[in-house]
Structure formats: structure tokens, C-alpha cells
Amino acid sequence: YDAVILAHSQFEKIPISTERQIAMLERQINDIENAIHEIKSENGENWSVKQMVIFRKNLDERLKKLSAEEKKDDLLTFEQLGVDMMMVDEAHFFKNCFVFTKLRNVAGITTSSSQRAFDMLLKCQYLQETNQGRGVVFATGTPISNSISELFVMQRYLQPQELERFGWSYFDTWIAHFAKKASVLELKPEGGGYRMRDRFVRFYNLPELMAVFREVADIKTADMLDIPGLPAVRTGKAEIVSVEATPAQQAIMADFILRAEAIRTGRVKPEEDNMLKLTSEARMMAIDPRLVDPNAENDPESKLNVCINEVYSLWVDTKEQKSVQLIFCDVGTPKPGRFNVYDEIKRVLVEKGVPESEIAFAHDAATEAQRQALFELTRKGDIRILVGSTGKLGTGVNVQDKVIAINHLDCPWKPSDITQRNGRGVRQGNENPEIMIKQFVAKGTFDAYLWQIQEQKLRYITQILTGKHIARSCEDVDETVLSAAQFKAAATDNPMVAQKMELENRVTELKILRGAWSNEQLALEHKVNLTYPSRIREYEQKIERVTQDISLLGQTEGKDFSIVLDGKHYTERPAAGEAFALLYRMISEGRGK
After folding, report:
1. Three-class DSSP category at 203
2. How far is residue 153 CA from its own chain's centroid?
3. Per-residue pLDDT at 470 exceeds 60
4. Phi, psi values for residue 241, rounded to 5°
5. Looking at 334-490, which runs of residues are DSSP E strands?
6. Is 202 helix (H, G, I), strand (E, B) or coil?
7. CA separation (Å) from 449 to 259, 291, 412, 455?
8. Within 13 Å, how many C-alpha atoms sit on residue 318's CB side?
9. Residues 245, 491 contacting (CB under 8 angstroms)
10. Does the pLDDT at position 316 exceed 90?
11. Taking the model in full, what pTM does it have?
12. Are 405 and 420 in contact (CB under 8 A)?
């Protein structure tokens, strides 16, 4: 066969030979050991034998666990298949690759690692070894979706030789070249007050990093491609539908703040209550209090009910065209016997008069055949309201034909998820020339914290993908970041936060402009003091030489050919040419004058 197409899950079942796995694991352990040894030496520390043994044993166990031999087929190894080229679509599914780092408690570094990603790394290394660094092509719309370490992981897959050449194979040395850690003030997850947190807020040497990355990356954004047939977004960006926190939400938020303080001061055990549990509940509560308290009242002004009313109103307005609306919500998915967002949306809409057959959940389609049948009904407009999570209704879903509105009921963790959601409607093949993107935000709730995270992630993602290298550091403010800042401001009931965000963005913008101006002044100064004077001298010498040539030309103008070479007078051009060539050879070999 010239090409074989298979799913990610099937690809993972093809094993790398045991011998190669052992060799690769050994090499990885040695690389990490050497990197740590160098860092320890720089700090004046030494490995103890005990430290070495413990470290090697832990790393060995971790890497063997990632290789997951028991999940592989034992028929043929990857090498025996004779594959010499691998093209991976949706490559961002492999971003959770094993990364060893000594950095701890720093936001923005992913420490998770998956067996699927580790398997891909081993196969990429094999193909690159056998094809002189070539043989692997990754395709993805979101190479960086969430964490700063993802760019390092992409480079690790696609250009390990370059990382090795520059001495960046170890994550900590890579990050030391391109990012600076700082303690920044941010809103607390529970929405009340502020806290200090370590995170990478500035990224340096971006031109050098991107110069290396672009050796393997051909980046094309929607703006660059100018794709025909894409529907426009009404108002040019997502519309904020801001909702006041209900009395029940305010009471629960006050309780969340007390719980958070108890967790921080250690008054409760982690198994009783922890920040992960708290943030999960706070995220659900922002949509509707009944998600965390089944006895809470159904407030008509809750974010969920406001969203349902907006959807119903548009359903009525677009009845003739049979337009479709998508509702995205990653929390409160269908659960039998418990209050959930999906069933509540359906119940209220049916009560208002929407036929039950026109409402569907992406979760109801269990098999691929069922999914395609559901999407076909949506494309026809038979299903006019489709509810789903980013995972079920995001990547690979083609239902855009009649989509008139994208409704974000909650805020996902990754900016790439927002892009994937919006891409279900802003897509070729949509019969509507304009669509609406609505962002539902509850003031004074966890929404404020989520949008703040989005803003911080968007800062460096948009910088790297668009290549806007106005300054050497990643402090660019673009429209996407500003809109995220506006969302955060709308999500809090403290007007000073909105003012703070506007001032921060303006100051950052002015710093960039000042940096660009300073660079321009330095460049002009260099030209005036060095470049232009040397060019003037060069041109003056050229003028002098050309003037001499013109003078000599004038002496022989109108006369027969005549030249004197090495004391002999020649009047024939061929003889003079031979003599000239001989004389040149003698001078170049050092035998003449």
C-alpha cells in the first residue's frame, strides 16, 4: 500500500520493538540525568550515589508505565511495517507528552503525561532516526491550546535534533531561555478578593524561538488564508450577555469564600474539602444554584434561564428559515435522577412551545452512525436546538449549514476550546451570511476567574501564532485579549476591576509602542553614525576610480588597439589576451610582479 489511514486508537496499539523501547528509555533517562547533573554543578552541588539510584529507579518505573506494553498488539512491530512517513491529523491530542521538570507550583506548566503521547514520541523518534530527521508531519488548528510547555512538546516531536543542538532538550533549560517567572496578583477562584500566584507572565527571545520553530511549522491563520464563504460574526466579536448574581448565588459565593479560607489555613482535611472540589462547584453554581443545591429555588433571572429565554426568542424569529442554534456547556451534563443543565433546557423550551423533536443532545448519540444521523438532521433544520459539550460538539462536527447562533453557557478552560466551539458556525457551507456568538456571564461568580485565565493564556498564544513581534517580549495586546478582559470585567460586580484591566492593557500597549520607538531610534543612530559614513566613503572611492577610468578612456579614444604588458607593446587583441592571462597566472602564483 502507498498509504494506510487509521484512527489514533488503532495506531496506539501498534508496538515499538522491545529492544528499541529499552534503548530509547535508557537514552531519555541519561539525557535527563545529564541535564540535572549540569544544573547541580552550576549551583555547586553534587549527586550523591543514593540520590542517583532513587532518581533513576523512579524515572525508570514512570517511563515503563507510560509505554503500556499490555495494551499493545503482539503481531507486528512498528518497524516491521516498513512505514517511512507519518502524517498525524489533530496533533494537539498528543500534547500531554512526558516532560520532566524541577519547577513546582508554577501555573502554566502541564505535568500530566499520557501513554498515547509517549507512544507517539517513540514512533516519531524512530522515523526521524531512519529518515535523517524527516518523515513526520503534524497537522493541527491549535498547536498551543493551553500551556506554555506545549510548544516545547511540539518541538520535541518534530525537531529533537535542533533542541539538542541548542542545548534545550531539558524543559527547564528551554524555559529559562524564553520565559520569566513572576508572582502576580489575580482574582481568587472563589471570586472574593485577590491572591499572589507564581506563573510565567513574560516570554522573551520570541524572534529566536519562532525562527527555530518555523523551520518545522507552516502557520496559517484564518486572516492569512482569507477563506471565501465564511459567515461574518455580528458586531465583529462575541456578545456579552451579562447577568446579575441571584440572591441564592450570592449566599453560596459567601459560603465558598469561607470554605476557601478554611482550606488554605488547613482547618479541613483534603479528603473532606479541597480547592479542586470547590472550583468545580463554583463553576456549576455560576450557571444555576440548583447544580450544587438541589433545594435551591428556580430563579427566573439565573444565567441558565436568561440563556433559555434568548434561545427561545431567536427560535421564534427564525422559524421560517429553520435556523439552528448550538448551546455549549461542559458542566451539568445529563445525569438520570439529578438536576442537570441539559434536561432543564429541554424541559423549559418544550413548556414554551418548542417541539421536543427539534431539541437534541450530542450525548444521546453513542455510536458514530448515530452521531452522523443526528448531524444530518441538524443540517436539514429538523433539529433546531443542539446542546453539547466541547468534546461532543467541538472538533470534527459539521452541522454549520443552518447555524445562526453559538451560545456559550459556560467558559471552558482552554482558549482553543472557544475557537473550536465558534468554528462550528463560522464555517464554509453556512447559508447564513451573519451569525451570533453569545457569551453568558454571571457577575460576581467564578466566571470572572475563568475569563482571567483565558486572558493570560491568550496573551502568549496569539503572540506566537500570529508572529506579532513588535517587541522582543510577549506583551502584545490584541483584540482577542481585550475582549477577554472585557468579559472578565463584566463578570465581576467590582467596577474597579474593569478600570484596572483597561489601565493595565493601556500601559502594556504604551510600553510596546515605547519599545518599538526606542528600537527605531537606536537603528537610526547606528545608520547615521556608522552605516551612512562608510557608504559615503565607499561611493567617493567608486567615483574616484570611475573618474580615472574615464580619463584613461579619453587618452585612447578613436585610436587603434594598443596596450603595454610587462614592458612589451601589443596591437593585436588575441596576443594581448594570451599575454594578459599568462601574466595574471604568474602574479597569482607569486612568480611575477
Report:
1. strand
2. 11
3. no
4. -105, 95
5. 359-361, 385-388, 403-408, 434-442
6. strand
7. 17, 19, 11, 10
8. 21
9. no
10. yes
11. 0.63
12. no
Amino acid at 232: A
Under 8 Å between Cβ of 212 and 162: yes
What pLDDT, in 10s, does the model give residues 43-95?
666 655 565 566 667 667 766 666 666 666 677 889 889 899 999 998 888 88
CA distance 8 to 93: 9
Output the CA torsion sign for 475, 479, 480, 482.
Answer: positive
Chain centroid, CA 351 distance in Å: 42
Asked whether 100 and 32 are in contact (CB, 8 A), the reply is yes
Question: How many whole angstroms separate alpha carbon 322 and alpha carbon 399?
Answer: 13
Which cell numbers in the block locate residue 489?
470585567
Parallel, antiparallel or unpaired: strands 434-442 and 403-408: parallel
Q: Which of 99 and 345 is assigned the larger pLDDT?
A: 345
Cell numbers 520553530 correspond to 213
By the 8 A CB rule, do 344 and 284 touch? no
388, 326 Cβ separation under 8 angstroms: yes
Which residues have a Cβ under 8 Å from the Cβ of 422 and sit 6 or more positions away? 233, 238, 406, 437
Q: Residue 192 has what DSSP assignment? A: S
| Mean pLDDT across 211-236 | 83
pLDDT digits (tens, 9 = 90+) for 242-260: 888 888 888 888 888 788 7
CA distances from 49 to 32, 55, 331 (A): 16, 10, 49
List C-alpha distances in Å: 525 to 282, 470, 471, 472, 537: 56, 19, 19, 20, 18
Burial of 85 from C-beta contacts in 10 A (0-12 / 13-18 / 19+): exposed
306 with 243: CB under 8 angstroms?
Answer: yes
- Distance between CA atoms of residues 536 and 367, nearest Å: 75
Question: φ, ψ for residue 458 (rounded to 5)?
Answer: -65, -30
Res. 3: pLDDT tops 60: yes
CB-based burial of residue 546 (10 Å sphere; 0-12 exposed, 13-18 middle, 19+ buried)?
Answer: exposed
How sure is the predictor about 342, in pLDDT bands with cuts at 50, 70 and 90?
A: very high
Using the structure block, give the residue that is written with the C-alpha cell 418548542. 354
Q: Cα(167)–Cα(442) distance, rounded to whole angstroms?
A: 47
Judged by DSSP in three states, 586 sits in: helix
Q: What is the DSSP letter of 146?
A: S
Residue 143 vs residues 190, 213, 255, 274, 395: alpha-carbon distances, Å: 31, 11, 39, 32, 14
